[in-house]
Structure formats: C-alpha cells, structure tokens
C-alpha cells in the first residue's frame, strides 16, 4: 500500500492537487490519489477514513474547495495525520476553503496549508517529511531538494546583480 493518500472532493481539484503528487514523486514517496466528497459521497468518506490506517496509509492529504469540510471529516475518523489543502474556489477565491479547513475546533487536528498550488506542493513536502522520519532515502531526498532550491535562488541573485 502506498505511504500517502491524496483525497480530493472533486476531479476539478486535480489541477491543484497534482502539485502534491508531483512533490511526492520528486521525493520518492509512494502515493495514490482518490476522489471522495464529504457531501456527495459521505458514506464512502466515512468508510475510507475509518479504514485508512489498517489499509497501511501513513499520511492523508485532503484537498477541497468551497465549504471544505473534507479534511476535517477525514481527521474525525482516523488517528493518522491529515494535511488540508484549501482549493481556490471560483466565488470567494479560496478564502472560504481556507477558513473552513483551518478553523478546526480543539481536539481534532488538521494541518492546514496555503491556498492553491503552493499549499498542495507543501502538503506533499510535509507528508514526505513525516515519512522521512522513518525512511533515510526520503530524508536525503528532502535535504537534496532543499539544497537545490537554495542553489537556484543564489544563482538568480548572481544573475540580477553581477556587478555588486
Ligand atoms: C468541492 O466542491 C470540491 O472539493 C471542489 O473544490 C468544489 C467544486 O466541485 P465541482 O462542482 O467542481 O465538482 O466538493
């Protein structure tokens, strides 16, 4: 069974959530992705969440837009860590998604990321960091990614300010 499962409320969330998948791939973390809706398929959501740990998943990433109760409802049914990604909505630009994911009442935790693509990529990164605690190869891949990112930024600086 893959280590990480990416759950999204609709196929329309995939252009955002694929950024989590790309990050997991880059860091060598096995994952799968599913469409499960908190309000359109509530029974499936309950079954999935209750069985996620016994299925072998270690981290769940939940992405949804609008009244985005998906990550919170998953977290209510499992002890696994859940990271929530607010998907940008057409009406309120994702502010509704952010507030409904981030503002969890005390006692059930969802680690909420930024709205949109950056949040999805960082959810993949954070999930990899959790997996990396027990997996030296993933941990090394994260260190390499960070070093590469730093080198890229330093190179940009040299490009912009050659004479300083
Ligand atoms: C949520 O409603 C989904 O997560 C999606 O972001 C939003 C709109 O879904 P569609 O109407 O595009 O299927 O359930």
TrEMBL record:
Functional note: Catalyzes the conversion of N5-carboxyaminoimidazole ribonucleotide (N5-CAIR) to 4-carboxy-5-aminoimidazole ribonucleotide (CAIR).
Pathway per the UniProt entry: Purine metabolism; IMP biosynthesis via de novo pathway; 5-amino-1-(5-phospho-D-ribosyl)imidazole-4-carboxylate from 5-amino-1-(5-phospho-D-ribosyl)imidazole (N5-CAIR route): step 2/2
Keywords tagged on the record: Isomerase, Purine biosynthesis
Keyword Isomerase included in the entry's annotation: yes
Highest rank taxon of the organism: Bacteria
Catalytic activity, EC: 5.4.99.18
Catalytic activity: 5-carboxyamino-1-(5-phospho-D-ribosyl)imidazole + H(+) = 5-amino-1-(5-phospho-D-ribosyl)imidazole-4-carboxylate
Binding residue positions for substrate: 10, 13, 40
Gene encoding the protein: purE
Protein name: N5-carboxyaminoimidazole ribonucleotide mutase
Span of domain PurE: 2-153
PANTHER family xrefs: PHOSPHORIBOSYLAMINOIMIDAZOLE CARBOXYLASE, PHOSPHORIBOSYLAMINOIMIDAZOLE CARBOXYLASE CATALYTIC SUBUNIT
Membership in a protein family: Belongs to the AIR carboxylase family. Class I subfamily.
MF terms (GO), sorted A to Z: 5-(carboxyamino)imidazole ribonucleotide mutase activity
BP GO annotations: 'de novo' IMP biosynthetic process
